[in-house]
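Human:
Focus on the backbone:
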Amino acid sequence: MDNALPSGPLLTPEQAAASMRRFQADLDRNGFSFWAVEVRDTGEFIGFSGLDLVDEGMPFTGVEAGWRLSRSAWGHGYATESALAVLRYGFDKLRLTEILAVTTRTNLRSQAVMRRIGMTTDPTEDFDDPEVDDGPLRRCVLYRKRADPVSRR
């Protein structure tokens, strides 16, 4: 998932409903998916955050944390707060040993979130997304976070 990058034009109601059906199917099948992110005080829907299986064809496998928030929600800590909740769910409820996150090399805001939530990166694991044409969005960075062995007892 290319965290926090706009994904193009707004979805039509039909496209949004199809996305919701895919998220529900993933939740039913895997026990995890993406969840709506709302502003606590107002209930305003601002995006989604959650876990997904890494897409086939990537140079790694595992479970990936991701988030996509409306631009108006950027800079308020919502991505960090929701990403921390996703990590807690993945490690505490699902008992995952590691959670990954991926974004483009140019997406410095998401990389900052990844560092704030305790993820680390190794530049030797940077890769070109096989589904993206040549250009500034093709080169990606991979972040990882391992479960704390003390909290897994």
Summary: The chain is about 30% helix and 25% strand.
